[in-house]
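Today's session is about reading a structure prediction critically. Students often jump straight to the picture, but the first step is always the sequence itself: look for stretches that repeat, for charged clusters, for runs of hydrophobic residues. Only then move on to the predicted structure, which in these notes is written as discrete structure tokens rather than atom positions. Here is the chain we will use throughout the hour.
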Amino acid sequence: MAHIARLLLVTTLVVGCAPTPPEPSPGPSASAAPTDPAADAARVVARKFVAQWRGRRYDQMVELLAPQDRERYTPAVITGLLRQFDELTEVTRTEVETGTPIRSSAPADAMQGPVLAYEVPLSLTFETVRFGILALNPTLLLTQGATGWEARWNPSLLFPALRAGDSLALLRTGSPRGRVVGVDGTVWAENRDDGMRVYPQEWLAGQTIGYVAPVTAEELATLPPSDDYEVGEPMGRSGLEQGAQRMLRGMPGAVLAALRPTGGAVALLRRPMVPGADLTITLRPDLQASAQAALAPYIDAATAVLDPKSGDVWALVSAPSFNPNSMTIGTTLAGQPLAVSDEGQWLNRATLAAYPAGSSFKPFTLLAALETGVATPDTRMSCFGTWTYSGFTFHNYLDHTLGGSVSLEEAMAFSCNTTYMPLSIRVWEANQTALTDLVAQFGFGVSTGIDYLADNPGILPDAAYFSSTPRGGGNIVPYGPFDQIQLAIGQGSFLGTPLQLANAYAAFGNGGTLWKPRLVTLVARPNGQVLNRIEPHAVRHVNVKPESFAYLAQTLRAVSTFSYGTAYFAFAGFPIPVAGKSGTAETGTPTPDAWFPAYAPASDANNAEIAVATVLVHVRLATGGTDAAPLVRRVMSTYFYGN
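Below is the predicted structure for this chain, in token form.
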């Protein structure tokens, strides 16, 4: 909506004569000739007058007026009117030019008979925040006074409709805020008849929809003048309400009016009201409700659900839940009182909170190994309880082991650190940037680009990151093999959001297309005017061979089909093949984060229909396979079977 706030509204008001005539050529003229001494003297005064106006030096400008005008209107009234005009229109620049003086006459004041006068056409241009560029063409009258030529004042010099005694006022017409509606017609946010903002879906997707709150006097001083807010006006504070504030708000109408001393008002300038636009969004209430119910027992958790075929966002869930009505009307729509929510409730953890991914990151290590040629589907490695590198010993979860010779598929199912850590070193020895370059292709370390919703870029700890980020001791240490080992299992400095993980796994399932997540499909005025139509947009096709994706799908399928797979029990009996990976991420506390990103159906045809990523934050004795995976199954069951 920035273009609306800055739209230049050109208003031309003609006062007195026609537009400024051209300078006359030398020679006889019925009007004042350039060699007329009286005209030249009048022109000098006119130029002084407009110079003071241009510089907004109104006190000095008034000194050039005839004494009878200063007595009739008073300097305080004249300068007050001009300053009021500047303030109400928010003038940023004034340009005033003079035309050729034209001999005229003026009625006598206290004298007998008309007096000699000159009319000087003016060209006034005001650049204003509130009304754009205003072009006015009044005529300045000058008459001969006791000490020389004097400018004459009349309020109509500013606007033809202004009269003596009038004052100026700004009248605003509020713009109705746009609605947030689903592609299926679900209304997520709207204004009641009394103007209050309400959220018909209550707790559902509250963090994604967001809320509004009144602008305070302190905030008003910090807002751009071009936005033309006023104290008490609702402003988006989170979610889509904040991200699409300009679109949803529209622009209030404004009228600069002359107020008569006897009552009544006359419009001098108008800026039409522009109603707020409606947003159409992709959230699916059934999947949102299913994912939200799955996270209900948790106080810190998040889920993102995407369509791998388009990048459409079907659900964004954050626990604890949040009802935006608590911030506007203070009750549910049924009238049940709601306590004011805090940031812990309205924070959208699915997009704004970034976490270590744990072993859900092993698929990227596998792809890097396949793409660099240091591993093939036939590769076998050890999976002992521990592995030592350069004097440091790394462990499997609880030091579990599968023995001395396992396939990469078996190691993925078992989530064997002691297989994928040494595999990452093989990648490092072949190409020191292969793993980080591949991870970057899947969209980590940068914003997803989702429109109208804030998201966290997370951290991709690659060579560039460590070249400018001090380590714990305050020193800059380049990216090295130990960083590679940590990244191989989603630890170290890596941080990612549920939205990023879901989007990356969607790319696994569709054959390598990384979509820009699409939450908003359409922004349109109530009259149907389309402001933004957002089509599905592929950020890139990642540089991974089809056969690498095919083997990756096989290994991720084993996570839920092998008897020792970490998600075997979570998906036992589920008829749709699921490709996913558990992650139990160390957090530096006794309680890990439990992850499970996945897509389905899992096949070689790259025909995944749904991608889901769930994280449970700081859950005691939890693992991704035992705690997060069952919640992902619930969402997939709703998608495939409606339950």
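Discussion point for the tutorial: The CA atoms of residues 466 and 478 lie 6 Å apart.
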